[in-house]
Specification:
The protein has 448 residues and is mainly alpha-helical. It has a single domain, classed as Orthogonal Bundle (Hydantoin permease), CATH 1.10.4160. Helices cover 81% and strands 0% of the residues. It is built from 18 helices and no strands. Helix 4 runs antiparallel to helix 5, helix 7 runs antiparallel to helix 15 and helix 11 crosses helix 14. The longest helix has 43 residues.
């Protein structure tokens, strides 16, 4: 069976960066920075993105390209003993289930983005009641827009690697970047923006040693790269054999951290512009409002306060959020679909819609039991499963995958890699330091 392949380095970087740049990047990173010392957090995040996330991502890319396979088959094929093969199957299945569960709650949040994106249009055409329905929390809206979002994601994935993932990443990622920069320039010209800029960029280096800041920055670096669930491993399996893997991995890391930084330049100043217009931006605890309340309460109030221009700024912002959601969701859906296509020999179209239906069914169940399931699934997947799965992938790369096989795989696109700094550090680092650092982060999060 002919496997898909990214046609160029740029195509892979846009697709992988799209996978990494999601809703968490655009609202999670800025508010994390606001709560953890502004520039001190930003600096710590940049350091840890390269100290922890980059080496872990390289493990996935190398295993993926070497095995040319989905996560389950890949981890089994690099294992030489029956016990390691069983462990590979378990970790692979765990990654596939986790990616699917993330998409189940993610599609609900992304559905809200689509609803809020349409709301300014109802203002323009004079349908305020429809606008209220779009922005008010209800089961019908939540399930309906989750279905729409999952359908959009499935359409991209069913078209395959080049005609689906690559084609849409090449369209959506430049659009995301242009919208982000345009919104930043507009918001920075509003009253109050400079105060937000200071909050974000003026460092308090005394906070650099704060364990809470370090753990928060490590978690953000780790989750923003979509590690542990096989997305990078599968995207790695679609990279051409003559590509320089350490270089493309570094470029994805730079793109991801760059867009997270830009998101901070938009969201933090926007919050203080909202405060200037009379919107409450601090929670009762004294910290800045974060998460869904920021996106669905503070920022819409800001757009309302901008008058006629606010309708267009609000529309642009939620288009931006919807694009970020789609670029991430296509990589998540590809994880179970690639397994169904390769391991179960199901056609891509059939596999895509079958998996999409299962995800929609679970997503609807979460929506119907929102208070008890939504937060639980987020914690289970992003705070518990993802770090552990990534730790196991590092163990596979460091202890089970033959070192000579890794070297020969990287040499295909970089013949002189054996003399490079990357090869002098990475094999030992991924074997010893990455699993320990990830386990420490996990333990800290669990205790916290």
């Amino acid at each position: 069976m002919q496997r898909g392949q990214f046609s160029s380095r740029l195509a892979f970087i846009l697709a992988a960066s799209g996978s990494a740049v999601g809703l968490g990047n655009i609202w999670g990173f800025p508010t994390n920075a606001a709560e953890n010392g502004g520039a001190a957090f930003v600096l710590m995040y940049m350091i840890l993105a390269f100290l922890l996330a980059y080496p872990a991502m390289m493990a996935e890319l190398i295993i993926g390209r070497h095995t040319q396979s989905n996560m389950v088959n890949a981890l089994q094929s690099i294992s030489s003993t029956p016990a390691a093969k069983r462990a590979g199957w378990a970790v692979g299945m765990g990654g596939m289930i986790t990616a699917s569960l993330i998409l189940c709650f993610y599609s609900l949040v992304a559905g809200w983005m689509l609803a809020f994106m349409l709301e300014p249009l109802t203002t323009l055409i004079g349908l305020p009641q429809l606008g209220n329905w779009l922005t008010e929390f209800s089961l019908a809206r939540n399930v309906g827009f989750a279905a729409l979002f999952i359908g959009l994601t499935a359409l991209v994935i069913s078209a395959g690697v080049e005609q689906g993932i690559e084609k849409w990443s090449q369209r959506l990622m430049p659009s995301l970047l242009a919208l982000l920069i345009g919104l930043i320039l507009y918001v920075l010209m509003q009253p109050g923006a400079i105060q937000g800029l200071e909050h974000y960029l003026v460092p308090d280096f005394s906070q650099m040693s704060d364990p809470k800041l370090i753990v928060s920055a490590m978690g953000q670096a780790f989750f923003s790269m979509s590690l542990g669930v096989g997305t990078m491993l599968i995207y790695g399996s679609y990279i051409r054999s003559d590509e320089n893997l350490p270089l493309v991995g570094a470029l994805v890391t730079l793109t991801d951290t760059g867009i997270a930084f830009l998101a901070g330049l938009l969201v933090l100043p926007a919050m203080f512009v909202a405060q200037h217009l009379g919107v409450t931006i601090y929670a009762e605890s004294g910290s800045l409002i974060a998460g869904p309340d920021l996106i669905f309460q503070v920022l819409p109030a800001l757009f309302d306060g901008m008058g006629a221009a606010g309708v267009f700024v609000g529309l642009a912002f939620f288009v931006l959020m919807s694009i970020a959601a789609v670029t991430s969701s296509i990589s998540m859906l590809e994880v179970p679909v690639s397994y169904a296509v390769e391991a179960q020999q199901i056609s891509r179209t059939k596999a895509t819609w079958l998996v999409a239906l299962i995800i929609f069914a679970i997503s609807s169940t979460i929506a119907m039991n929102f208070d008890s399931l939504f937060g639980f699934v987020i914690t289970l997947t992003t705070e518990r499963a993802q770090p552990l799965l990534s730790m196991f992938i590092c163990i596979f790369a460091g202890w089970i995958f033959y070192r000579n096989s890794i070297l020969s795989e990287i040499q295909k696109g970089n013949p002189d890699v054996e003399q490079s700094l990357f090869w002098k550090i990475w094999p030992v680092y991924v074997k010893l330091f990455c699993p320990v650092l990830i386990l420490l982060t996990f333990a800290q999060g669990f205790i916290g």
